[in-house]
Every structure is written in structure tokens, then in C-alpha cells.
Amino acid sequence: MSQAIYNVLTNAYKFTRDNGYVKISYNMDSEDLVIRIDDNGIGIAKEELDRIFEAYYRSSTTTDFSGDGIGLYIAKENLHKIHGTIQVSSNLNVGSSFVITIPKNISNY
User: What burial class does residue 15 get, using C-beta atoms within 10 Å of its C-beta: 0-12 exposed, 13-18 middle, 19+ buried?
Assistant: First the structure.
């Protein structure tokens, strides 16, 4: 769980320009902890959103940045193991929002 959050946060900071922002918020309902990470970074093209959780996939907008394209894949796989989820919405040159949902009763998995 912590690796998933770390990977998303690392990407948010890496792909956000100087003087940009990364915002973290959370809430807990009766069943889940929901963590939202928003940034105003470089964003992700709509046609690439379906692929960003694939192992070794790198968006065409990230060629100037270091990385192997494995972080979001690991995040999704780790969350899947505890029946959590990760979702993304993004606009190119505007920013991205990632929503991580973690079951409250994680010890059951």
C-alpha cells in the first residue's frame, strides 16, 4: 500500500513544473480509505490513459524525464493484491488526478 502511494506521489512531483502544485487529500467512509492526489503537471494524453498502468509503458510526454515506466504498474498490482483500486483522470498540459481506494478492513486480505 505504501509503495503504491509513494509511486503516485513520486510521479506527481516529477512531472509537475517549478511553482506547480501537488495536493493530497483523503476521506474515509464506512468501507474504504480514499486518497486523492492532484497535480498541475504535464498531464497525460487521453489516448494514453488506458496504457499508463502497463509495465514499462512510458507516455510520449515523458521522454525528457528519467524512469522505466514501472511505477504505476507496481502501484496498481500492489493495490489489486489488497482489493484496492487506482483510477486516473488527466488533461494534457493541465494536470492529473489519481484516486486510490483502499479497503478499510485490509487485514481480511
Answer: buried
